[in-house]
């Protein structure tokens, strides 16, 4: 249930949310949510690092 709630509340765009909706089962949805979150965090870290240089 937590995975479903986080998927609904996550601040991601339509494409990411659609990928979460299309997950075949809860395990797959959790894996996709983790992957999307890791990519978003990596993007933020890249942006943060480039602004300090």
Question: What features would you describe in this structure?
Answer:
By secondary structure, the chain is mostly helical. The chain has one domain. The chain has helices spanning 2-9, 14-21, 26-52. It starts with a helix and ends with a helix. The mean pLDDT is 91.
Mean of pLDDT: 91
Question: What profile does the largest beta sheet have?
Answer: none
* Topology as a string of helices (H) and strands (E): HHH
How many helices in DSSP terms?
3
Beta percentage is under 5%
User: How does the overall form come out from the CA principal axes?
Assistant: elongated
Overall strand count? 0
Rg over CA atoms, rounded to whole Å, is 13 Å
Distance between the termini: 42 Å
Low-confidence stretches: none
As a percent range, the share of helical residues equals over 70%
Total count of domains:
1
Q: Which secondary-structure class do the elements indicate?
A: mainly alpha
Oligomer: single chain
Organism: Mesorhizobium prunaredense
InterPro entries: PUA-like_sf (IPR015947)
Protein name: Peptidase S16 lon domain protein
Feature tags:
mainly alpha, PUA-like_sf, about 55 residues, elongated
């Amino acid at each position: 249930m937590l995975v479903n709630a986080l998927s609904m509340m996550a601040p991601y765009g339509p494409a990411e949310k659609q990928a979460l909706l299309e997950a075949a089962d809860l395990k797959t949805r959790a894996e996709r949510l983790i992957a999307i979150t890791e990519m978003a965090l990596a993007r933020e870290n890249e942006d943060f690092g480039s602004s300090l240089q």
